[in-house]
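Hi U.,

Before I forget, here's the chain from the pilot set. I'm dumping it here mostly so it's searchable later in email.
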Amino acid sequence: MTIRIEALEFEAILGILDFERETPQRVRIDAEMTYRYAPDAFLDYAEVVRKIESVMKEGRFLLVEEALETLFSSLKASFPRIETIKITICKPDILPNCRVCVEDFRTFL
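Structure:
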């Protein structure tokens, strides 16, 4: 099975510039996970969303890459049925003429 979370937006501290360390900025996350489904062991997408948001808000990451690494390990630890994860983290307001995103993929098979 595949679960997709699209356009999850919230504010978090993310970045190395002085103003990014002081003021939360809008962050947008898209995530896709494959998992082994069983009737008694499904992936609760609401819990996945809560986990992503809490990791990002509590992490206060300097780099998007650090946030990605932490999300991968946190999601796999919390939801062991996950087999693959693809995550895109965007900072839509950091530059005036574009949306900056970093994406990565992990396989846990």
